[in-house]
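BUG: 3D viewer hangs when loading the predicted structure for this chain

Environment: internal workstation, default settings.
Expected: structure renders.
Actual: progress bar stalls at 90%.

Input used:
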Amino acid sequence: MTNLSGKNELASNSDLRLVALQLQKDFMMFAEDIEVEEIQTFEELEKMIFAEVSELLHRNKSKLTQIIYRIDIPEKAISEALHPENEEGFERAISRLMVERTQLKIEIRKSMS
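C-alpha cells produced before the viewer hung:
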C-alpha cells in the first residue's frame, strides 16, 4: 500500500514540477519572471500565482489579460470569475484557473505521448 501511495506522490510531484515550469514559461513570454524552484505543493503554486495576478491587476491589466489568454482559460470561466457573486474573488479565481488549466494541459500531453 505504501508503494502505491509513494508512486502517486512521486507522480504528483512530477506533475507539480511540470505545471510550475509551464506557468513560469507562460509568464516569461510577457516578461514576468516567477520563481518556481522552491514550490512544494499546488497550494503554494496557487498562492504564488495569486500574488503575481494581484500585482499585475494593479500594475498592468493588459499584460494580465494576455497571460490569461496565453494559458487558454475558457471565456465562461473568466466570466464566472468576474461575476459579482463570486465569493472567491477575481484574483483568487483566476489564479486557481491558471493552475487548473495548466495542469489539464499537462495531463493531456502525458496521455498523448
